[in-house]
UniProtKB/TrEMBL annotation:
Top-level taxon of the source organism: Bacteria
Presence of the UniProt keyword Membrane in the record: yes
Transmembrane segments: 14-35, 42-63, 725-746
Keywords tagged on the record: Membrane, Transmembrane, Transmembrane helix
Name of this chain's protein: Membrane protein containing DUF1355
Keyword Transmembrane among record annotations: yes
Gene3D superfamilies the record matches: 3.40.50.880, Immunoglobulins (2.60.40.10), von Willebrand factor, type A domain (3.40.50.410)
Length: 754
């Protein structure tokens, strides 16, 4: 580094004239003063000091600056940055034969390509879009146990998914190489992390550093059919049909017929012919009835189209567990009306349901009828109540020695903290109105009409009507196709009583409304659901579902209530052990979507764990792991909660561990979607063009490397670094000038002039 110094002024004719006149006038006046005082020594010194002050002021009037120049004595640097992200694997560069984008720019990454530039500048070749450690997360800790093969206390480093950041590499190269002549950037322009590249380009422009961009890849999407999602549930029940939705996206210009094939790990194959829409998304589903219990792996494949160039995204694999079902249901009722009788029969005859009935019949001292389904009293402890997956509340309340405030509080906690389901089936006696004075008021998904506690009856049958949500819901699916389902609901026998409902509460979902009756809030809601805490709530606004058996016996009545029970108990039974239960939402998360995790942990005695160290270890498909500490969310129910975000598509292994009990529970979460870097997506040359334009650079193709070298060779060296020190406003100069003035006025007082 060569350093030179100089003093510069900003004189103008006017400032020179003023300075000369001021100095000349001071000389004349000073000489006259000395002559009048016979050149007395004190007068001569004082006038000399005055002259010095005026001369300094005249010099400062010229704006003097001390200039330091730093001229680098080494070669300038040319940085060649190339993209090595996943999208560069797209094979859409057509030369003599199709190449990937990475192969197309391979020559630019070799030093031989820039050899002719070595005499002019030092060439530095660097890749970007590398994987980096994720920033520290206060909720992420080291594992305190070894539930999944990690040594106690061992640090687990979680890595971010590899993506493309075009902004940071441009700024980093400036910091690493101060004497930068120019930058060559080779990329497809696709960025998904960091700031907008144009911001970094603006920074380089202000520094006078041009960027020569080499865009690569086709800006038109390749002809492709991509399997986007395969929504396999966490578990299914052996012998019961399960419907598995999937989504397909096509970039082909025309609709076409295709065959979707689902294959199980045991060799079972299911095929379905579908029609895939052009330039859009197609949603459909596959029906499957598993027979054997155990873990299965399902693979969904789409047949390849003749014009499709890529077929590596035509297949998705997802795990599923096939279990033997045993759900525990508690039905609480007062008077054994027809709805109660047929509901009890439907549940007791369902092989997957174990039903218990509590009948608060007036004057009834013993279990109703002596049937084994009946229990004598409400569960005595929360531990006993927590065994039930779903609770039905009929026409019961606080009066007539039925429910107590404490029991209502337990039911509230069962839904909120234990993910159980609660079904309200009000009756004409209006006892459920008294529940509004209990914690259950928050769970009720509808607003009731206080002026008509007994509800409304009619001599003529009235009917339901499906809402848009109801047409898509699994709860109201009584036929296999949408058209058949509408026909079934329109032909079901009607009801002759309905509850005094005003409106559905915000946050709830209305599936069925009254076909004719409406009020100021709209159509009267009769089947309403909502999520409350970790569980689900359903309100059935009529007790006439038993009439659906007319002419078809158990076909629709049993199917409906069976679907209700399984829908409400599903989340609670995602993963469970002897003393632990783990559930999460959403069930089929997308990559980079936050997953809420809830756990219930019991002590060996069966009592809820009131507090403790509960951790969850997540192992991604690549083997990278993280461990999060679950926070207590309901000590009375042993409830714990936390969150994590899957950064990779595929199966994530979850291990729940409690330090106090030493128990662990393992399950899997399958994250759907694609990585940040997607193969087959169009390139973005417009981004590269904008970077070049903003920085006053140029856009070149891969085969024009010599033109890039010619531009760089013709560029002048960057101007030397200059440091200017403004003497006219420097604190030391100003301070010295003030000191001279002070000395002058003190001297005048000393000689008696003031």
């Amino acid at each position: 580094m060569i350093e030179t110094h100089s003093l510069s002024f900003a004189w103008t004719p006017w400032t020179i004239a003023i300075a000369v006149i001021a100095i000349a006038a001071t000389l004349v006046l000073g000489f006259l003063a000395c002559w009048r005082n016979h050149f007395r020594k004190a007068t001569v010194l004082l006038e000399g000091l005055r002259l010095i002050v005026v001369v300094v002021a005249a010099i400062l009037l010229g704006g003097p600056e001390w200039v330091e120049q730093y001229v680098p004595d080494d070669k300038p640097v040319v940085a060649v940055l190339y993209d090595d992200s996943g999208s560069m694997q797209t094979r859409d560069v057509v030369q003599s034969e199709p190449q990937t984008r990475e192969e197309a720019i391979a020559s630019l990454t070799q030093m031989e390509a820039w050899k002719s530039l070595e005499s002019r500048a030092e060439v530095v070749i660097e890749p970007f879009a590398e994987t980096k450690p994720e920033p520290n997360n206060p909720n992420r800790i080291n594992p305190i146990s070894n539930p999944a093969g990690v040594a106690p206390g061992e640090t687990t480093e979680f890595m971010e998914e590899k993506g493309t950041d075009l902004s940071s590499p441009l700024l980093d190269v400036v910091r690493k190489h101060p004497h930068l002549l120019g930058v060559v950037l080779a990329s497809d322009g696709d960025w998904n992390q960091g700031d907008a590249p144009v911001r970094a380009a603006g920074r380089l422009r202000s520094m006078g550093i041009p960027v020569f961009t080499v865009p690569v890849g086709s800006e038109e999407r390749l002809p492709d059919v991509e399997l986007l999602s395969f929504d396999v549930p966490t578990f299914a029940i052996g012998g019961k049909k399960v419907r598995i939705p999937f989504s397909i996206e096509s970039s082909l210009p025309r609709d076409h017929a295709a065959t979707v094939t689902m294959t199980t790990s045991k060799g079972e194959t299911i095929t379905k012919d579908i029609r895939i829409a052009a330039m859009g998304r197609t949603n459909d589903s596959v029906d499957w009835e598993p027979e054997d219990l155990g873990d299965e792996t399902l693979t969904l494949t789409i047949s390849k189209h003749p014009n499709e160039l890529l077929d590596d995204n035509n297949e998705i694999t997802a795990p599923i567990s096939i279990r033997e079902e045993k759900l525990r249901v508690l039905v609480i009722e007062s008077v054994p009306r027809w709805e109660y009788r047929y509901l009890r029969n439907a549940l007791s005859r369902d092989p997957g349901v174990e039903v218990s009935c509590l009948l608060f019949h007036p004057g009834l001292d013993a279990r109703g009828g002596g049937n084994a389904d009946y229990i004598a009293t409400f569960p005595d402890t929360k531990e006993e109540l927590s065994k039930y997956d779903v609770v039905f509340l009929g026409d019961v309340g606080l009066d007539d020695n039925q429910l107590t405030l404490e029991q209502c509080e337990w039911l509230h906690g069962l839904v909120e903290q234990q993910a159980s389901g609660l079904v309200f089936i009000p009756g004409w006696e209006g006892r459920q109105f008294s529940l509004r004075e209990t914690p259950l008021k928050d769970l009720l998904p509808v607003t009731l009409d206080e002026g008509q506690p007994g509800g409304w009856g009619s001599r003529t049958a009235q009917h339901f009507e499906l809402t848009q949500l109801g047409r898509r819901s699994l709860l109201t699916k009584l036929a296999d196709t949408a058209d058949d389902n509408l026909e079934v609901w329109s032909n079901l026998p009607g009801f002759q009583w309905y509850a005094p409902v005003l409106a559905a509460k915000p946050g709830s979902e209305t599936l069925l409304v009254h076909q004719e009756v409406s009020n100021r809030f709209g159509r009267l809601p009769l089947l309403v659901t909502r999520t409350y805490g970790a569980g689900k709530v359903l309100f059935m606004g009529t007790d006439g579902a038993w009439r659906w058996r007319k002419g078809v016996e158990d076909l629709y009545h049993y199917r409906f209530w069976g679907q209700v029970v399984r829908w409400m108990a599903y989340r609670r039974n995602m993963a469970q052990g002897e003393t632990m239960r783990l559930y999460y939402s959403p069930e089929q998360p997308q990559v980079r979507q936050t997953v809420s995790v809830n756990a219930n942990v019991m002590e060996a005695s069966g009592e809820p764990l009131s507090g403790g160290d509960v951790t969850l270890q997540i192992v991604a498909p690549s083997g990278r792991s993280q461990t999060i500490q679950l926070q207590s969310s309901g000590e009375a129910w042993g409830a714990f909660a936390g969150r994590f975000t899957p950064e990779e598509p595929g199966e994530h292994k979850l291990t729940l561990f409690c330090k106090q009990t030493g128990d662990s529970l393992q399950t899997t979460v399958f994250a759907q979607g694609v990585a940040l870097e997607q193969i087959g997506k169009p390139a973005r040359p417009d981004v590269m063009q904008e970077i070049a334009r903003v920085t006053n650079g140029q856009v070149f193709t891969v085969d024009r490397v010599e033109d890039v070298i010619a531009w760089l060779s013709a560029m002048p060296d960057r101007p030397p670094s200059i440091r200017r020190i403004a003497l006219w406003s420097h604190p030391a100069i100003v301070g010295g000038f003030i000191a001279l003035l002070a000395l002058f006025w003190i001297g005048r007082k000393g000689v008696g002039l003031i």
